[in-house]
Design goal:
With 333 residues, the protein is α+β, with helices and mostly antiparallel strands. It folds into two domains: 4-159, 3-Layer(aba) Sandwich (Aminopeptidase), CATH 3.40.630; 162-331, Gcn5-related N-acetyltransferase (GNAT) (Aminopeptidase, 3-Layer(aba) Sandwich). It is 33% helix and 29% strand. It is built from nine helices and 14 strands. It has helices at residues 14-28, 41-48, 50-53, 101-115, 130-138, 168-188, 201-216, 266-280, 295-302, and strands at 4-7, 58-63, 72-77, 86-92, 120-126, 142-143, 153-159, 162-166, 220-226, 232-240, 249-257, 285-291, 306-316, 322-331. Helix 1 (14-28) runs antiparallel to helix 2 and helix 6 packs antiparallel against helix 7.
Length: 333
């Protein structure tokens, strides 16, 4: 199970998390102090009253499963003076590390920045902090020209994929290349998405052409993620129930993230986009199915979906072997 992420700059555990962060940071810089009261004024203000210090910013906390309080935090600074938002104060308590908490916090911060329309996110990190550096680079951050002249401080930035809803014409336009490539990549990677391997690009494009017709009839909504260079990096669709007694529900289908773009929270962002649209358009219940034991299950469980049951031998994987499928649902609102 993944950590529960919440936004709360007034959480009673937050001062202790920020104090621990700053004490370790001061020690690493060779200016160790013993208590929050001895920190430099700006850091002391954050530790003593984060609600005031971060009044304009987004403060996220992560609580591990079975824990009674947050074990990690991160701050997404609001963009100022035309700059892109900046990630600060990423901290996970030592006893809670190597459980994916830092990555989960970063993924949620990136998702929120993208949802707010930010073209990029930036951060700074000391060049001796090898583990955070590995995390940031794995999330797609790269070195950029420095905006902070402190020695040994690296300035990193990541351009954000943009998620947009595709109208039927856009689905048709992307079907032969970008959308087909996403489907072929998923099947090549072993995902059970309705096709056997090898999947030809022409067959994948034909399937997406059919989706365009469903979009034109109002049966299916489609969202795609675009990388800064224009490539499609992910897609998700929402299928609306066609029966009179099922108009309150929809199905999440074909949530795909290209193998080159995984591990950056894009699947979570695509899913959240479809869920928000479903709720805004009056749907109260969503369902989906996914191969039991697949990586997608972690995504859905972490996003608050509930497993309703498992059906054995429900569908063949791309290699032709019958696999079980787990059904999930999520109530909206």
């Amino acid at each position: 199970m993944t950590a529960r992420i919440e936004e709360n700059r007034s959480h009673p555990h937050l001062p202790a998390l920020l104090t621990a962060y700053h004490l370790v940071n001061q020690a690493e810089k060779g200016a160790a102090v013993a208590t929050a009261a001895e920190l430099p004024a700006g850091y002391r203000a954050e530790a003593e009253d984060p609600a005031v210090a971060f009044a304009a910013d987004t403060v996220l906390l992560a609580t591990p499963p079975g824990s009674d309080g947050p074990a990690g935090c991160v701050v997404l600074k609001a963009p100022r003076e035309g700059r892109v938002p900046e990630i600060k104060r990423l901290w996970v308590a030592p006893e809670a590390r190597r459980k994916g908490i830092a990555k989960a916090l970063m993924a949620e911060a990136l998702r929120r920045a993208a949802a707010a329309g930010a073209p990029a996110v930036r951060l700074t990190v000391w060049n001796w902090r090898e583990e955070p550096l590995a995390l940031y680079r794995g999330l797609g951050f790269g070195a950029v020209a420095s905006w902070d002249d402190r020695p040994d401080l690296l300035c990193l930035e990541r351009r954000l994929d943009v998620i947009e809803r595709l109208d039927p014409d856009a689905v048709r336009a992307h079907a032969p290349a970008g959308l087909a490539a996403l489907l072929v990549d998923a099947v090549d990677g072993g995902a059970s998405v309705g096709f056997l391997a090898p999947l030809e690009a022409a067959e994948a494009a034909a399937w997406w052409s059919g989706v365009a017709e469903e979009a034109a009839r109002g049966v299916r909504d489609v969202w795609a993620a675009h990388a800064p260079d224009g490539r499609l990096t992910g897609v998700v669709t929402l299928v609306r129930a066609g029966t009179a007694n099922g108009r309150h529900r929809g199905e999440i289908a074909r949530l795909l993230v290209h193998s080159s773009a995984r591990g950056r929270g894009l699947g979570q962002r695509l899913l959240a986009t479809a869920e928000a649209h479903a709720a805004a358009t009056g749907l109260g219940l969503l369902v989906l199915d996914t191969q039991t034991g697949s990586p997608a299950e972690r995504l859905y469980r972490g996003a608050g979906w509930t497993a309703a049951g498992t059906i054995p031998d429900f569908a063949a994987d791309p290699a032709g072997a019958l696999r079980p499928t787990t059904l999930y649902y999520k109530r909206l609102g």
